[in-house]
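User: I'm putting together notes for a lab meeting next week and I want to include a structural view of one of the chains we've been expressing. I don't have a solved structure, so I'd like a prediction I can at least talk through. The sequence is below, exactly as it appears in our construct file.
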Amino acid sequence: MADEVVPGACRERQEVIAQFAAELRELRAGAGDPSFRKMAEASDFVSRTTLHEAAQGSRMPSWETTREFVRVCGGDEAEWKARWQRVKDGPEADEPPAPEPGAPARRTWSTRGVVLLASVAGLLCAALTAVVLVAIRPSAPSAPSAPEQQQDSPGPLIPGDVSRFVVDVNYPDGSTVRTGEKFTKVWEIENAGTAAWHDRYLQRRELPVDPGDCVTPERTPVGDVLPNERVKIMIQVTAPPQPKQCTVSFKMVDGSGKSFFPTARPVYLSVNVAGA
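Assistant: Thanks for the context. Below is the predicted structure for the 276-residue chain, given as structure tokens.
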């Protein structure tokens, strides 16, 4: 009996996961089809490879991965949590019909037993799929790790608040500056949520500043930004006196220094400092 149930449950499980992945791809397309690199930059702990696998449907993504995918694409987190839970739990089996009076008794599977077996089959399918993928797919390059940060909140400080990185206006990552050079770094970000921004700042995370590192203000004001508006933020930077790679990151905080987006990736500058 088990040999007959497992293959069918396996196929059904794969089809359900594939449909869930197709819905994630539709959500991403509705958000302007951002690259997985940019999606990973908007997340603090999910790599572009993991996000790409979630959209492929090769296996069931974790809720943490799904939540980050949905968050950076502007989806409704509660709605997608319910969808994810339904896919994770699998379809509920119908109760078998009651036997007719006088009919001989026969052995039947209980609903709980069928669901349990289907769940076990799903786990086996996921494990086999992972083994096959490891065997036939070359390793993807690891995404650069984000600076470690305190996970002190599961979401934004204000419900509905969303900050979206738009572009490095100048000095993109890997740009070269000279030792001792003074320059102005500019980012453009968007208020992609429903909360208006007032009295906000970008605060440097690497404090106190190490000797020989890039020098910047500890804080710079963001300005007042309404929902769906974009703002350019400028930071004055002085390159160190010795050649090195200089990376500085900033988080959006209130007047007391509390982060508005504790689990979001910071904005940062990364330049190569060359000798004069």
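A couple of points you could mention at the meeting. Confidence is low (pLDDT under 50) at residues 1-6, 92-99, 105-118, 130-153. The chain has two domains: 2-95+109-136, 163-274.

User: Perfect, that's what I needed.
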